[in-house]
Amino acid sequence: STPIFEFTEVFKRSIGNDTDIVTKEMYTFEDRKGRSLTLKPEGTAGVVRSYIQHNMATWPQPVELYYIEPHFRYERPQKGRFRQFWQYGFEVIGESDPAIDAQLIYVSLKILEDLGLAQKCELHLNSIGCMAKNCRPKFVEDLKNYYIGKERSMCAECQSRLHKNPMRLLDCKEEDCKILAELAPKLSDYLCKECKEFHEQLIDLLGEMNITYTPNAKLVRGLDYYTKTVFEFVEKGDDRAMNSLFGGGRYDGLAEILGATEPVPGIGFAAGIERIVDLMKREGVTVPSKDALHVFVAQLGYEAKKKCIPLLAQLREAGVKAVGALGKGAIKHQLRLADRFEVPYTILVGITEVREGTAIIRDMKRGSQKVVKFDDVLEEIKKLIGEEELDTYTPGEVLY
User: Which burial class, exposed, middle or buried, applies to 210 when counting CB atoms under 10 A from its CB (0-12, 13-18, 19+)?
Assistant: First the structure.
């Protein structure tokens, strides 16, 4: 993860001075030295800045990075849009090949499949060309000329965009603007030979991977740094402006914009976590908890508590996911807590068990229980749970 804020210039130079994000949505402030800082509205610019700053060009290429982090935009709070929101993203920097684009689209689709949402979404794909004189710039010039004189049929937002960010005219959701966009010049007719071949190869590779897509000539994304491939996974049958779950594209010129001395190609995508969670809830997708508990430890009396505190520590160190009620609650109250935690087993230690050096292990599903020696509790629980279910991972094993 990169820092939660960057120098404002990072976003102005990369996203574009005339984009909605820069002109309307950024949280910008000055620090005590008068430097302009901005809370991150998106992740890619900071990742590429970090790639340059830390000389990742000397690493084996391409460099593959991911992040899960909060972003901030000053938007009108509504369904699917928040002023603080979480995204996870993937970036592949240092390689320009349609195979990389195809692989990243596959990763996006695989995530949706794993979340149980693939059948609810569709892939929209487009190429927005490059900055070569005979490619996108020629299209933008003709697009402006097409819209000039039609301002009365355009919404106020599009009238503002006409001379500042004309490509965004194509994805306006206002009905009159949508009609104009349908008749507008098509970017696909302006692609230079290199961009056209790149896109054709990508389509061919997606076909080999059995990935279906919907061509979307109006998909341009809202950031100036994109080149060639742009794509989104959108919710089927949803024409809202915020229906995109995943969005991304290629940004082969971004590193140079941010100060790299040589061209550095890259591609990435980001996904809105809140939107994905919302769709999962609406579709009734249930997710098994990886943090499901194994054991609840219940005790009664001070002497029992003294025995149970170290027992809890031993259970956890052995990989048993255990929780205990170490207050003064009655056994009935503690067992109700165990039910709420949905643990398969509860260990009970009371005055009698302390005196006899035993403990009770209760099977919460069957309602049966057995008495075991207190010193054997850990091994008995491990047998009941199974070695394969124990959480024995420790980060130190990787480091040392």
Answer: exposed
301/357 Cα distance (integer angstroms): 15
For residue 382, give the CATH number of its domain: 3.40.50.800
Task: Identify whether 177 is part of a domain.
Answer: no
* Whole-structure pTM value: 0.79
Q: Is the pLDDT of residue 400 over 60?
A: no
Domain with 321 in it: 295-396
Q: Name every residue whose Cβ is closer than 8 Å to that of residue 219 and which is 6 or more positions away in sequence.
A: 124, 125, 126, 171, 230, 231, 232
Q: Provide the CATH number for the domain around residue 105.
A: 3.30.930.10
How many residues in the chain?
400
Is 215 inside a domain boundary?
Answer: yes
Residues 220, 351 within the same domain:
no
- How does DSSP assign 134-189, residue by residue? TSHHHHHHHHHHHHTT-GGGS-HHHHHHTTT-GGGGGG--SHHHHHHHHHSPPGGG
Give φ, ψ of 131 to 5 degrees: -90, 10
In a domain, 368, yes or no: yes
Q: What are phi and psi of 208, to 5 degrees?
A: -65, -30
Token pair for residue 273? 């976590």
183 part of a folded domain: no
What does DSSP assign to residue 25?
I
Q: Which of 364, 353, 367 is nearest to 295 (CA)?
A: 364
Distances in Å between the Cα of 54 and the Cα atoms of 58, 59, 102, 361 are 9, 10, 27, 55
Task: State pLDDT tens for residues 371-391.
Answer: 999 999 999 999 999 988 888
Task: Write the pLDDT tens digit of every residue in 338-353.
Answer: 998 899 999 999 999 9
User: Sign of dihedral through CA atoms 236, 242, 245, 251?
Assistant: positive
**Contact (Cβ atoms closer than 8 angstroms) between residue 234 and residue 276:** no
